[in-house]
Amino acid sequence: MNSTPFLSATLGALYQDFETRRPTVVGIKPFKNNNQKVASKTNQITIGFSEPMDQTFRNFDYGPLGEDASIRIKNGIGYAADGQSLTFEIEDLKPNKQYQLTIGSGFRNANNVPLKAYLIDFKTKAE
């Protein structure tokens, strides 16, 4: 009987290796994530990625607060030339309201590795 293992490492080790190779969101602009005083006149968000992304894949979803708190995307402006950021226009924000948007694992890098999901979460200031 052949005693050669089927896997090159344990499932846990393989999973950890996969997780370390996944691209991540490194930040958003024009404000920092979890900001509690975002101007309601904000009309664009730019997502920064840890590495160039495949520009054909996208995936947005509601955050834990659901549809009522979702950021509504109005228009995709597009990726930067280097593929490391994506800008989109958002619909008008209401003052003193919590907003969320999940940037999902449907985003992929150039090697087809899925993004680690990232929650954009902020509140607009009372104006």
Pairing-aware structural class of the strands and helices? mainly beta
Secondary structure tally: strands: 7
Query: Major sheet: order of its strands?
Result: 1-2-5-4
What is the CATH architecture descriptor? Sandwich
Mean pLDDT across all residues, rounded?
Answer: 93
The whole-angstrom Rg is: 18 Å
Total domain modules = 1
Please give the largest β-sheet.
4 strands, antiparallel
Question: What's the order of the H and E elements?
Answer: HEEEEEEE
Helix segment tally? 1
Helix content range: under 10%
CATH topology: Immunoglobulin-like
Q: How much of the sequence is in beta strands?
A: 25-35%
Low-confidence stretches: none
CATH class label: Mainly Beta
Q: N-to-C terminal Cα separation, in Å?
A: 74 Å
Task: Based on Cα principal axes, name the global outline.
Answer: elongated
Labels describing this entry:
single chain, 7 strands, 9% helix, three-stranded antiparallel sheet, 127 residues, four-stranded antiparallel sheet, Immunoglobulin-like, mainly beta, 1 helix
Question: Can you characterise this structure?
Answer:
- It contains one helix and seven strands, in the order αβββββββ.
- Strand 4 and strand 5 form a beta hairpin.
- It is elongated and about 65 Å long.
- The protein has a four-stranded antiparallel beta sheet with strand order 1-2-5-4, with no helix packed on it. A three-stranded antiparallel beta sheet has the order 3-6-7, with no helix packed on it.
- The protein has a single domain (25-123), classed as Sandwich (Immunoglobulin-like).
- The model has no long low-confidence stretch (mean pLDDT 93).
- With 127 residues, it is mostly beta strands.
